[in-house]
Design goal:
144 residues; alpha+beta; 6-stranded antiparallel β-sheet
Length: 144
């Protein structure tokens, strides 16, 4: 059994559906091509699921499970320059994602509207990584 499996098996108290949202995000991350999904436990503070691209920056997104007053919630963070936030639901966190400016979205339930909004940011961030790599290749071709 992996650390992630153990963590999920031990997560039995979930009155707001945060675990369900976590599992949905996990599934989305695992569906991204050429992305390694890793679990980084830092008990008791946070438990982090990271989507790591094959090259470039260390992560596309981080899904952290944190607790406040005994209630679990998710903080889903992205590099600020890889997503948009048209409904202004996220929080800009200067230096907040591996010492770079980030956007974080708190998810405290399995509310479909909220989860779908953050899920769309995951796809947007993943596409941003692909676009930036293609653009870099095109820029390199221009230099030749």
């Amino acid at each position: 059994m992996t650390e992630l499996d153990s963590f999920l098996n031990d997560w039995t108290d979930d009155p707001s559906g945060v675990k369900k949202a976590f599992l949905r995000f996990k599934s989305v991350l695992e569906s991204l091509g050429d992305v390694a999904v890793t679990f980084v436990p830092r008990p008791p503070a946070t438990y982090s699921l990271r989507a790591e691209p094959p090259r470039g920056r260390p992560v596309i997104t981080m899904v952290d499970v944190a607790s406040l007053d005994g209630e679990r919630f998710l903080s889903v963070c992205f590099y600020a320059d890889t997503i948009t936030d048209p409904e202004e639901r996220g929080d800009l966190i200067p230096g907040g994602l591996l010492s770079k400016d980030g956007y974080c979205f708190d998810v405290d339930s399995d509310d479909d509207d909220t989860v779908s909004y953050v899920e769309a940011r995951i796809y947007e961030a993943a596409a941003s990584f692909s676009l930036s790599e293609e653009e870099q290749g095109a820029d390199d071709a221009d230099d030749e």
